Amino acid sequence: MSENILKISGLKVAYGGIKAVKGVDLEVNKGELVTLIGANGAGKTTTLKAITGTLPSCKVEGTISYLGQPLKGARSFKLVEQKLAMVPEGRGVFTRMTIHENLLMGAYTRRDQAGIDADIDKWYTVFPRLKERDGQLAGTLSGGEQQMLAMARALMCHPTLLLLDEPSMGLAPIMVEKIFEVIRDVSKQGITILLVEQNARLALQAANRGYVMDSGAITMSGKAEDMLHDPRVQAAYLGE
Ligand code: ATP
């Protein structure tokens, strides 16, 4: 039987009178790349924030377990200690730190200096632009460069589960391709990923399984490949 990394059951989130998430069930198994797609305002980011415990004060119901343990209310730094890394929408890099310092922050739970240095070198090889700008403040990077940095920083902790919120948003097509290439590589290395994306085609092409979210509810789920060929998904999310 496949090993459950993340299990969300009956998740409901309301911001005051607005019901943003209305009873979501979602699972991510070990080694899977699962994507959550849906239109603007469907509740995807709210679902990710419920996992990381970073919602503003609002009503949350249901259970979220990570590696078999309840996760509700966990603090962000505790998540990294549990090897749960998130790349939020808008990147969330430390703008007043250099690229190099951001990468070191991603590894703050690690003590293997040689391994940390080797990982930084690895990410500098994957993203040569970061290497060229090693000492530059992250706040001065372009959107695409910040996305590369946010991804590399999240991976510095060798996460068991990586949560990605709209990694392609606002990026030039060539950057989107690069970011997706990295997502596929990371997935091949065995890191479990939950990917929230508006670019449904790219997301489903990269993923093993997918969920469609609409107005706070999961309306469809299945193998990503089947979903790519589903006329309802094609009509609503793939522009066909
Ligand atoms: P997008 O792709 O546009 O980011 P999404 O699927 O991630 O959309 P959410 O950001 O989760 O959607 O938003 C779901 C609903 O909750 C929306 O109607 C949104 O307006 C509302 N919402 C989100 N954050 C808040 C907040 N802090 N206060 C009040 N309402 C909110």
From TrEMBL:
<keyword id="KW-0029">Amino-acid transport</keyword>
<comment type="similarity">
    <text>Belongs to the ABC transporter superfamily.</text>
</comment>
<dbReference type="GO" id="GO:0015658">
    <property type="term" value="F:branched-chain amino acid transmembrane transporter activity"/>
</dbReference>
<dbReference type="InterPro" id="IPR027417">
    <property type="entry name" value="P-loop_NTPase"/>
</dbReference>
<dbReference type="Pfam" id="PF00005">
    <property type="entry name" value="ABC_tran"/>
</dbReference>
<dbReference type="InterPro" id="IPR003439">
    <property type="entry name" value="ABC_transporter-like_ATP-bd"/>
</dbReference>
<dbReference type="InterPro" id="IPR003593">
    <property type="entry name" value="AAA+_ATPase"/>
</dbReference>
<keyword id="KW-0813">Transport</keyword>
<dbReference type="InterPro" id="IPR017871">
    <property type="entry name" value="ABC_transporter-like_CS"/>
</dbReference>
<keyword id="KW-0547">Nucleotide-binding</keyword>
<dbReference type="InterPro" id="IPR030660">
    <property type="entry name" value="ABC_branched_ATPase_LivF/BraG"/>
</dbReference>
<dbReference type="GO" id="GO:0016887">
    <property type="term" value="F:ATP hydrolysis activity"/>
</dbReference>
<keyword id="KW-1003">Cell membrane</keyword>
<keyword id="KW-0472">Membrane</keyword>
<dbReference type="GO" id="GO:0015807">
    <property type="term" value="P:L-amino acid transport"/>
</dbReference>
<protein>
    <submittedName>
        <fullName>ABC transporter ATP-binding protein</fullName>
    </submittedName>
</protein>
<feature type="domain" description="ABC transporter">
    <location>
        <begin position="6"/>
        <end position="240"/>
    </location>
</feature>
<keyword id="KW-0067">ATP-binding</keyword>
<dbReference type="InterPro" id="IPR052156">
    <property type="entry name" value="BCAA_Transport_ATP-bd_LivF"/>
</dbReference>
<dbReference type="GO" id="GO:0005524">
    <property type="term" value="F:ATP binding"/>
</dbReference>
